[in-house]
Amino acid sequence: MSLKSAIELSILDIVHNHDKLMTINELVTALPIFTAKAYGVYRLMSILVHSGFFLRQKSGENEQEEGYVLTNISQLLLKDDPLKAMFDPILTKPCNFLGTWFQNDDPTSFSTAHGKTFQDYGGHEQKLNHFFNEAMASDAWLVTIILIHKCKGVFEGLKSLVDVGGGKGTVAKAIAEVFPHLQYTNFDLLHIVIGLHQFKSSVLKF
Predict the structure, then answer these.
(1) Each residue's pLDDT tens digit in the chain (206 positions)?
(2) Stated pTM of the model
């Protein structure tokens, strides 16, 4: 909940955009909060430092000034990073229904919280469909870069390849570009691949 609050207050982006060590006073001044509650920011930051999302460092003359910088993991949660979408209320709400889920026959706590499966919800809610696929594509791109450069031998001798659950085709497009001899087919639900036919080619199909 502390991290969720930090994201809602844009603390990570504020510290990142400061471009240097940010003191607690500078952070409080930059935050859109009720002035009388400023004392709570230091407590919140202490929890986030303990959790590994920020580093508390000293600077200034004789290192008397203390401030905050991001860690590697918190940089994944900046405004424009697709992984930040994982903290959207649509996805965090099921965490509040775990107790209820254990007592019913729903397949997942997501079904308990929203009354439908993740796939059904995504098929009708464009916001969920978009940020989930963006997050998956971001992860897939990282894996694909390693795959096509470090494991080329895996594709030797293959004539065709089918990617079931391939999402927006991030992996498909990358592999088809490097290995044009492969006939690559990308399968996924209609609401995910709709509009992707513009990327079709002689070797890539959706």
Answers:
(1) 788 888 888 899 999 999 889 999 999 999 989 889 999 999 999 999 999 999 998 876 666 778 999 998 888 778 776 666 667 788 889 999 999 999 999 999 999 999 999 888 888 887 787 777 777 777 677 778 888 878 878 887 888 888 888 877 778 888 888 888 888 888 887 777 776 665 556 567 76
(2) 0.54
Report the alpha-carbon distance of residue 124 to residue 79 in Å, rounded: 25
